[in-house]
């Protein structure tokens, strides 16, 4: 059975003290009410070490929001996969639409990052998603499968099996708009079939498919009912312990 994965992407929020308080409250809430899902949080780089100390000996896992593909070198301002592994990250989010749009990350960069992350025995969470214009032009499936193909080109089944893929429609991120269950079903089913046909039924079936885009507790339950929703990537609602874990609780009801 697939264990759902729920990841909180804190983005560029949380100075040290706030990050520690938030991590502590998630750990303590998980102690009183364990989740029926694997839970991870992705604080800013500056808070990773302090948050790691808070999550030690708890089921809560540490994630990073990005990394560079080279292990070291003259890349001012960047952080490498070995550095994130050393600090205790289990997951690294890659290809977030904010990285693609604001920092011009291209699919071939994301592909190299995927190799770097899995090479350090961490798991990558690869984000794909269409803009509103692309959806309105009927290009959603084309866009997400192309992003997938470009990022996964030539990768081994071993790498693929260590991935989660987050479908994050760009128009739903931080906007309060959600893809409706029918829209999520269509894209997730298509991603699953695409993975299975590209990498074989076994490898293509173990990849967890997350939905992200203004997920709130109120809408989570309608999405966990879908067969191919295996978790969530949560931005704004992950900045408080209670709504974040209430989203994960939606998986208890299945
Ligand atoms: C995200 O940043 O991945 C995200 C889904 O953000 P939000 O939940 O705030 O839309």
Write the layout of secondary structure elements.
Layout: E1 5-9, H1 16-32, E2 38-42, H2 48-55, E3 61-64, H3 81-87, E4 91-94, H4 97-102, H5 107-119, E5 123-128, H6 132-136, H7 140-152, H8 157-161, E6 163-167, H9 181-199, H10 201-206, E7 208-212, H11 217-224, E8 231-234, H12 241-249
Parallel strand pairs: 1-2, 1-8, 2-3, 3-4, 4-5, 5-6, 6-7, 7-8
Helix pairs in contact: 1-2, 5-7, 7-9, 11-12
Bound molecules: phosphoenolpyruvate.
Q: What is the helix/strand order?
A: EHEHEHEHHEHHHEHHEHEH
Number of helical runs?
12
Helix/strand class: alpha/beta
Major sheet summary line:
8 strands, parallel, barrel
Structure ligands: phosphoenolpyruvate
Structural domains: how many: 1
Rounded radius of gyration (Å): 17 Å
Task: Provide the helix percentage.
Answer: 40-55%
User: Span between N and C termini?
Assistant: 12 Å
Please name the CATH topology: TIM Barrel
Low-pLDDT segments: none
The count of β-strands is 8
Under CATH, the homologous superfamily reads: Aldolase class I
